[in-house]
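Inputs:
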Amino acid sequence: MMASVSRRTLIYAAAMVVAIGGIAAFMTFWPTGDSVSTAVSDIGGILVIGTAAIAALSTALSFDRGEPLRTQWMLIAGGVGLFALGDIAFAYYELATKSGEVPFPGLPDVFYLSQYALFGVGLILAAMAYRGLVSLRNPVIVAGVVSVALGIGLFGVFIQPVLADAEVSLAERVLTIAYPAADLVLLLGPALAIVLTIRHLQGGRLGWPWWAVAAGVTLVAVSDAAFNWLVFKETYQSGMLVDYGWMAGYALVGLGAMLALDVRRVFDIT
Amino acid sequence: MASLFAVVTEVLEPYTGRIVADTCVRASAISMGKTADELVLDDLPAIEANIRRVLSPVAGRSTVDDLLTRIESGAR
Protein backbone atom coordinates (compact mmCIF):
# COMPACT_ATOMS: atom_id res chain seq x y z
CA MET A 1 0.00 0.00 0.00
CA MET A 2 2.79 2.41 0.89
CA ALA A 3 4.18 2.28 -2.63
CA SER A 4 0.91 3.71 -3.94
CA VAL A 5 0.75 6.58 -1.47
CA SER A 6 2.25 9.67 -3.05
CA ARG A 7 5.12 11.68 -1.64
CA ARG A 8 2.73 14.64 -1.43
CA THR A 9 0.40 12.69 0.87
CA LEU A 10 3.27 11.52 3.05
CA ILE A 11 4.49 15.12 3.38
CA TYR A 12 0.97 16.26 4.31
CA ALA A 13 0.71 13.51 6.97
CA ALA A 14 4.14 14.30 8.37
CA ALA A 15 3.38 18.03 8.45
CA MET A 16 0.13 17.41 10.33
CA VAL A 17 1.84 15.15 12.88
CA VAL A 18 4.60 17.73 13.41
CA ALA A 19 2.12 20.61 13.68
CA ILE A 20 -0.26 18.92 16.13
CA GLY A 21 2.62 17.37 18.07
CA GLY A 22 4.38 20.72 18.18
CA ILE A 23 1.32 22.50 19.52
CA ALA A 24 0.76 19.75 22.10
CA ALA A 25 4.41 19.88 23.19
CA PHE A 26 4.27 23.66 23.52
CA MET A 27 1.07 23.49 25.56
CA THR A 28 2.61 20.86 27.83
CA PHE A 29 5.58 23.01 28.77
CA TRP A 30 3.91 26.43 28.69
CA PRO A 31 1.57 27.54 31.52
CA THR A 32 -2.06 26.74 30.68
CA GLY A 33 -4.45 29.67 30.49
CA ASP A 34 -1.68 32.10 29.53
CA SER A 35 -2.49 34.36 26.54
CA VAL A 36 0.46 32.98 24.57
CA SER A 37 -0.65 29.39 25.03
CA THR A 38 -4.21 30.33 24.07
CA ALA A 39 -2.91 32.02 20.91
CA VAL A 40 -0.73 29.04 19.96
CA SER A 41 -3.60 26.62 20.51
CA ASP A 42 -6.20 28.72 18.68
CA ILE A 43 -4.04 29.79 15.73
CA GLY A 44 -2.42 26.36 15.47
CA GLY A 45 -5.85 24.77 15.27
CA ILE A 46 -6.96 27.20 12.59
CA LEU A 47 -3.86 26.44 10.50
CA VAL A 48 -4.23 22.66 10.84
CA ILE A 49 -7.96 22.60 10.09
CA GLY A 50 -7.64 25.25 7.38
CA THR A 51 -4.99 23.12 5.68
CA ALA A 52 -7.33 20.12 5.80
CA ALA A 53 -10.07 22.25 4.19
CA ILE A 54 -7.69 23.31 1.41
CA ALA A 55 -6.68 19.66 0.85
CA ALA A 56 -10.34 18.65 0.52
CA LEU A 57 -11.04 21.58 -1.81
CA SER A 58 -8.09 20.77 -4.08
CA THR A 59 -9.28 17.17 -4.30
CA ALA A 60 -12.80 18.33 -5.17
CA LEU A 61 -11.48 20.60 -7.93
CA SER A 62 -9.41 17.77 -9.40
CA PHE A 63 -12.63 16.10 -10.53
CA ASP A 64 -14.61 17.37 -13.51
CA ARG A 65 -17.78 19.39 -13.07
CA GLY A 66 -20.81 17.15 -12.60
CA GLU A 67 -18.82 14.25 -11.18
CA PRO A 68 -20.27 12.88 -7.92
CA LEU A 69 -16.84 12.86 -6.25
CA ARG A 70 -16.41 16.56 -6.97
CA THR A 71 -19.71 17.28 -5.22
CA GLN A 72 -18.88 15.00 -2.26
CA TRP A 73 -15.46 16.52 -1.66
CA MET A 74 -16.72 20.05 -2.25
CA LEU A 75 -19.33 19.56 0.48
CA ILE A 76 -16.75 18.03 2.82
CA ALA A 77 -14.33 20.89 2.09
CA GLY A 78 -17.12 23.35 2.82
CA GLY A 79 -17.87 21.62 6.11
CA VAL A 80 -14.24 21.63 7.23
CA GLY A 81 -13.87 25.22 6.03
CA LEU A 82 -16.88 26.32 8.07
CA PHE A 83 -15.38 24.67 11.14
CA ALA A 84 -12.15 26.60 10.51
CA LEU A 85 -14.21 29.82 10.26
CA GLY A 86 -15.83 28.90 13.56
CA ASP A 87 -12.37 28.53 15.04
CA ILE A 88 -11.38 31.94 13.67
CA ALA A 89 -14.42 33.51 15.33
CA PHE A 90 -13.64 31.59 18.53
CA ALA A 91 -10.02 32.82 18.46
CA TYR A 92 -11.21 36.38 17.84
CA TYR A 93 -13.27 36.36 21.02
CA GLU A 94 -10.51 34.73 23.05
CA LEU A 95 -7.61 36.78 21.75
CA ALA A 96 -8.96 40.11 20.53
CA THR A 97 -11.70 41.04 23.01
CA LYS A 98 -11.12 42.52 26.44
CA SER A 99 -12.95 39.86 28.39
CA GLY A 100 -11.55 36.97 26.35
CA GLU A 101 -14.89 35.25 26.89
CA VAL A 102 -16.40 33.30 24.00
CA PRO A 103 -20.19 33.69 23.94
CA PHE A 104 -22.13 30.45 24.09
CA PRO A 105 -24.26 30.47 22.06
CA GLY A 106 -22.42 32.88 19.79
CA LEU A 107 -21.00 33.50 16.32
CA PRO A 108 -18.65 30.47 16.41
CA ASP A 109 -21.66 28.22 16.90
CA VAL A 110 -23.22 29.55 13.69
CA PHE A 111 -20.19 28.23 11.75
CA TYR A 112 -19.78 25.07 13.83
CA LEU A 113 -23.42 24.10 13.34
CA SER A 114 -23.48 25.05 9.64
CA GLN A 115 -20.63 22.66 8.93
CA TYR A 116 -22.84 19.68 9.82
CA ALA A 117 -25.20 20.32 6.92
CA LEU A 118 -22.42 20.33 4.31
CA PHE A 119 -20.26 17.65 5.88
CA GLY A 120 -23.23 15.38 6.58
CA VAL A 121 -24.67 15.61 3.08
CA GLY A 122 -21.20 15.02 1.62
CA LEU A 123 -20.78 11.84 3.69
CA ILE A 124 -24.28 10.60 2.89
CA LEU A 125 -23.69 11.14 -0.85
CA ALA A 126 -20.34 9.34 -0.56
CA ALA A 127 -22.00 6.31 1.05
CA MET A 128 -24.84 6.29 -1.47
CA ALA A 129 -22.40 6.39 -4.39
CA TYR A 130 -21.47 2.77 -3.60
CA ARG A 131 -25.01 1.47 -4.18
CA GLY A 132 -24.08 0.20 -7.64
CA LEU A 133 -21.24 -1.89 -6.20
CA VAL A 134 -22.51 -3.24 -2.88
CA SER A 135 -25.82 -3.45 -1.05
CA LEU A 136 -26.35 -0.49 1.26
CA ARG A 137 -29.29 -1.98 3.15
CA ASN A 138 -27.34 -3.57 6.02
CA PRO A 139 -24.85 -0.68 6.45
CA VAL A 140 -27.71 1.82 6.64
CA ILE A 141 -29.72 -0.30 9.09
CA VAL A 142 -26.71 -0.99 11.36
CA ALA A 143 -25.59 2.65 11.25
CA GLY A 144 -29.12 3.74 12.12
CA VAL A 145 -29.43 1.32 15.05
CA VAL A 146 -25.98 2.24 16.41
CA SER A 147 -26.74 5.96 16.09
CA VAL A 148 -30.03 5.58 17.98
CA ALA A 149 -28.32 3.51 20.70
CA LEU A 150 -25.53 6.08 21.04
CA GLY A 151 -28.15 8.83 21.07
CA ILE A 152 -29.94 7.22 24.00
CA GLY A 153 -26.63 6.84 25.83
CA LEU A 154 -25.62 10.44 25.12
CA PHE A 155 -29.01 11.67 26.27
CA GLY A 156 -28.59 9.96 29.62
CA VAL A 157 -24.97 10.98 30.18
CA PHE A 158 -24.67 14.40 28.54
CA ILE A 159 -28.00 15.93 27.67
CA GLN A 160 -30.27 15.10 30.59
CA PRO A 161 -28.02 16.74 33.23
CA VAL A 162 -27.93 19.93 31.14
CA LEU A 163 -31.69 19.97 30.62
CA ALA A 164 -32.22 19.39 34.32
CA ASP A 165 -30.03 22.35 35.26
CA ALA A 166 -32.39 25.30 35.86
CA GLU A 167 -29.55 27.82 35.43
CA VAL A 168 -28.91 26.80 31.81
CA SER A 169 -30.60 29.13 29.28
CA LEU A 170 -32.96 27.88 26.59
CA ALA A 171 -30.44 28.70 23.83
CA GLU A 172 -27.74 26.71 25.64
CA ARG A 173 -30.13 23.80 26.04
CA VAL A 174 -30.97 23.85 22.33
CA LEU A 175 -27.28 23.85 21.37
CA THR A 176 -26.47 21.18 23.92
CA ILE A 177 -28.93 18.93 22.11
CA ALA A 178 -28.09 20.16 18.60
CA TYR A 179 -24.35 19.36 18.69
CA PRO A 180 -24.54 15.70 19.76
CA ALA A 181 -27.65 15.13 17.63
CA ALA A 182 -25.89 16.52 14.54
CA ASP A 183 -22.76 14.54 15.41
CA LEU A 184 -24.78 11.34 15.46
CA VAL A 185 -27.12 11.94 12.53
CA LEU A 186 -24.85 13.83 10.15
CA LEU A 187 -21.34 12.66 11.04
CA LEU A 188 -21.12 9.36 12.93
CA GLY A 189 -24.10 7.64 11.30
CA PRO A 190 -23.02 8.31 7.70
CA ALA A 191 -19.36 7.58 8.58
CA LEU A 192 -20.36 4.21 10.03
CA ALA A 193 -22.46 3.49 6.95
CA ILE A 194 -19.45 4.28 4.77
CA VAL A 195 -17.15 2.03 6.82
CA LEU A 196 -19.62 -0.86 6.71
CA THR A 197 -19.91 -0.35 2.95
CA ILE A 198 -16.25 -0.06 2.05
CA ARG A 199 -15.24 -3.04 4.17
CA HIS A 200 -16.65 -5.09 1.28
CA LEU A 201 -13.79 -3.68 -0.80
CA GLN A 202 -11.35 -5.71 1.36
CA GLY A 203 -8.77 -2.96 1.52
CA GLY A 204 -9.28 -1.95 -2.14
CA ARG A 205 -7.91 1.47 -3.03
CA LEU A 206 -11.32 3.04 -3.51
CA GLY A 207 -11.93 2.66 0.22
CA TRP A 208 -8.71 4.24 1.45
CA PRO A 209 -9.91 7.88 1.54
CA TRP A 210 -13.06 6.95 3.40
CA TRP A 211 -11.28 4.94 6.11
CA ALA A 212 -9.33 8.11 6.93
CA VAL A 213 -12.44 10.31 6.73
CA ALA A 214 -14.45 7.97 8.97
CA ALA A 215 -11.65 7.87 11.56
CA GLY A 216 -11.43 11.66 11.46
CA VAL A 217 -15.17 12.14 11.79
CA THR A 218 -15.26 9.81 14.78
CA LEU A 219 -12.52 11.82 16.50
CA VAL A 220 -14.40 15.05 15.78
CA ALA A 221 -17.67 13.69 17.19
CA VAL A 222 -15.97 12.40 20.35
CA SER A 223 -14.23 15.77 20.77
CA ASP A 224 -17.56 17.58 20.36
CA ALA A 225 -19.14 15.46 23.09
CA ALA A 226 -16.19 16.06 25.41
CA PHE A 227 -16.21 19.80 24.69
CA ASN A 228 -19.92 20.12 25.47
CA TRP A 229 -19.42 18.30 28.74
CA LEU A 230 -16.45 20.49 29.69
CA VAL A 231 -18.37 23.67 28.83
CA PHE A 232 -21.33 22.47 30.91
CA LYS A 233 -18.95 21.83 33.82
CA GLU A 234 -17.32 25.22 33.11
CA THR A 235 -13.87 23.63 32.99
CA TYR A 236 -12.98 24.07 29.31
CA GLN A 237 -9.79 25.95 28.44
CA SER A 238 -8.09 26.29 25.06
CA GLY A 239 -5.26 23.80 24.71
CA MET A 240 -7.01 20.95 26.46
CA LEU A 241 -6.83 17.44 25.00
CA VAL A 242 -10.17 17.94 23.26
CA ASP A 243 -8.59 20.56 20.95
CA TYR A 244 -6.15 17.98 19.61
CA GLY A 245 -9.08 15.65 18.94
CA TRP A 246 -10.55 18.23 16.58
CA MET A 247 -7.21 18.98 14.96
CA ALA A 248 -6.36 15.29 14.48
CA GLY A 249 -9.89 14.54 13.31
CA TYR A 250 -9.93 17.18 10.59
CA ALA A 251 -6.30 16.39 9.69
CA LEU A 252 -7.47 12.82 9.02
CA VAL A 253 -10.27 14.14 6.81
CA GLY A 254 -7.61 16.10 4.91
CA LEU A 255 -5.54 12.92 4.68
CA GLY A 256 -8.56 11.20 3.17
CA ALA A 257 -8.72 13.94 0.56
CA MET A 258 -5.03 13.47 -0.26
CA LEU A 259 -5.53 9.70 -0.55
CA ALA A 260 -8.45 10.32 -2.90
CA LEU A 261 -5.98 11.98 -5.25
CA ASP A 262 -3.55 9.06 -4.90
CA VAL A 263 -6.28 6.55 -5.73
CA ARG A 264 -6.65 8.19 -9.14
CA ARG A 265 -3.12 7.23 -10.20
CA VAL A 266 -4.06 3.97 -11.92
CA PHE A 267 -0.84 3.40 -13.82
CA ASP A 268 1.28 3.49 -10.70
CA ILE A 269 -0.02 0.03 -9.76
CA THR A 270 2.24 -2.78 -10.85
CA MET B 1 -4.01 -16.41 -22.81
CA ALA B 2 -5.97 -15.33 -19.72
CA SER B 3 -9.76 -15.28 -20.00
CA LEU B 4 -11.60 -11.96 -20.25
CA PHE B 5 -13.04 -12.63 -16.80
CA ALA B 6 -9.53 -13.04 -15.36
CA VAL B 7 -8.21 -9.92 -17.09
CA VAL B 8 -11.04 -7.69 -15.88
CA THR B 9 -10.99 -8.91 -12.29
CA GLU B 10 -7.20 -8.60 -12.15
CA VAL B 11 -7.41 -4.94 -13.16
CA LEU B 12 -10.32 -4.11 -10.86
CA GLU B 13 -9.18 -6.05 -7.78
CA PRO B 14 -6.65 -3.51 -6.42
CA TYR B 15 -9.47 -0.94 -6.48
CA THR B 16 -12.56 -2.83 -5.47
CA GLY B 17 -11.26 -5.96 -3.76
CA ARG B 18 -11.63 -9.46 -5.18
CA ILE B 19 -15.25 -10.08 -4.26
CA VAL B 20 -16.64 -6.84 -5.68
CA ALA B 21 -14.52 -7.18 -8.84
CA ASP B 22 -15.77 -10.72 -9.27
CA THR B 23 -19.39 -9.70 -8.68
CA CYS B 24 -19.06 -6.80 -11.09
CA VAL B 25 -17.98 -9.06 -13.97
CA ARG B 26 -20.43 -11.84 -13.13
CA ALA B 27 -23.31 -9.34 -13.04
CA SER B 28 -22.28 -8.11 -16.50
CA ALA B 29 -22.17 -11.68 -17.76
CA ILE B 30 -25.60 -12.52 -16.32
CA SER B 31 -27.09 -9.42 -17.95
CA MET B 32 -25.87 -10.84 -21.28
CA GLY B 33 -27.28 -14.30 -20.53
CA LYS B 34 -23.83 -15.83 -20.03
CA THR B 35 -21.61 -17.14 -17.26
CA ALA B 36 -18.41 -15.28 -16.42
CA ASP B 37 -16.28 -17.99 -18.05
CA GLU B 38 -18.21 -17.69 -21.32
CA LEU B 39 -17.34 -14.01 -21.80
CA VAL B 40 -15.42 -13.24 -25.01
CA LEU B 41 -13.75 -10.17 -26.48
CA ASP B 42 -16.98 -9.14 -28.25
CA ASP B 43 -18.59 -8.75 -24.82
CA LEU B 44 -16.02 -6.20 -23.73
CA PRO B 45 -18.05 -3.07 -24.65
CA ALA B 46 -20.98 -4.25 -22.53
CA ILE B 47 -18.68 -5.12 -19.61
CA GLU B 48 -17.00 -1.73 -19.90
CA ALA B 49 -20.35 0.03 -19.90
CA ASN B 50 -21.32 -1.77 -16.70
CA ILE B 51 -17.98 -1.00 -15.05
CA ARG B 52 -18.31 2.65 -16.03
CA ARG B 53 -21.83 2.80 -14.60
CA VAL B 54 -20.96 1.36 -11.18
CA LEU B 55 -17.44 2.70 -10.72
CA SER B 56 -17.72 6.27 -12.03
CA PRO B 57 -19.61 7.57 -8.95
CA VAL B 58 -16.92 6.23 -6.58
CA ALA B 59 -13.73 6.38 -8.65
CA GLY B 60 -14.19 9.34 -10.97
CA ARG B 61 -14.35 9.40 -14.77
CA SER B 62 -10.62 9.67 -15.47
CA THR B 63 -9.78 6.78 -13.15
CA VAL B 64 -12.40 4.60 -14.81
CA ASP B 65 -11.06 5.60 -18.23
CA ASP B 66 -7.57 4.51 -17.17
CA LEU B 67 -8.87 1.23 -15.76
CA LEU B 68 -10.75 0.50 -18.98
CA THR B 69 -7.63 1.27 -21.00
CA ARG B 70 -5.75 -1.30 -18.92
CA ILE B 71 -8.52 -3.84 -19.37
CA GLU B 72 -8.53 -3.31 -23.13
CA SER B 73 -4.76 -3.66 -23.42
CA GLY B 74 -4.87 -6.82 -21.31
CA ALA B 75 -7.74 -8.35 -23.22
CA ARG B 76 -6.49 -7.75 -26.77
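Chain B touches chain A through 23 residues (CB under 8 Å). Flag for discussion at group meeting.
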